[in-house]
Structures are given as C-alpha cells and as structure tokens.
UniProtKB/TrEMBL annotation:
Organism domain of life: Bacteria
InterPro entries reported in the protein's UniProt record: ACP-like_sf, PKS_PP-bd, PP-bd_ACP
Molecular function per GO: phosphopantetheine binding
Keywords: Phosphopantetheine, Phosphoprotein
Lineage, uppermost ranks: Bacteria, Bacillati, Actinomycetota, Actinomycetes, Kitasatosporales
One Pfam entry name: PP-binding
Name the UniProt record assigns to this protein: Polyketide synthase
GO biological process: antibiotic biosynthetic process
Residue ranges of domain Carrier in the record: 5-82
Gene3D superfamilies: ACP-like
Length: 94
C-alpha cells in the first residue's frame, strides 16, 4: 500500500489530481465542496478512479465519486477501504 492512504494525505492527493484536471492551484479546491460543483463530469470520474486505482493498488468503482461527492468524503471512504485491503492478506494459490 502506498504511504498516501491516510485520510489527510489521500485528501491532499485527490485535491491535487482534481486541481490538475481543472488547471488550477490545489489550494483552490475546497475538500468539502461536491466535485460536481467544480464541473467534474462522468468522464473525469472515470479518469479519477483510474488514477486512484493506480495510486492505491486496488480497483475503484467509478460510482464511488458520486456516492462520496466531495474530496473529503471520497478520501475518508477510500482510506477505510485501503485499511481493509491491508488487513486482508492476499490469497495465495494452493
């Protein structure tokens, strides 16, 4: 697991990704504002989920962006999922 699966670090990472998509400074992204308020649509949701999968090392369903609408909600949810992935050892073939 990457070092940035802590909720605070993950929140900053997601805010930086969203800022990159919007071509603005990360400080302009309010973690409590719904991502849709920034104009992020389903295309960006898919891109963000792909980036999250690469970053976290596990699949991220694109609907998670709509279920957890802000950077704050999304990072808290994904940090919990990441913790579950660390707690569950990978299955090995017999």
């Amino acid at each position: 697991m990457p070092a940035t699966d802590h909720p605070t670090e993950l929140r900053e990472w997601i805010a930086h990704r969203v800022a990159d998509y919007l071509e603005c400074a990360p400080e302009a992204i309010d973690p409590g504002v719904p991502l849709s308020d920034y104009g992020l649509d389903s295309v960006y949701a898919f891109v963000l989920c792909g980036d999250l999968e690469d970053h976290l090392g596990f699949p991220v369903d694109p609907t998670v962006v709509w279920d957890h609408r802000s950077v704050e909600e999304l990072s808290a949810h994904l940090a919990g999922v990441a913790a579950g992935h660390r707690a569950d050892p990978p299955e090995t073939a017999p």
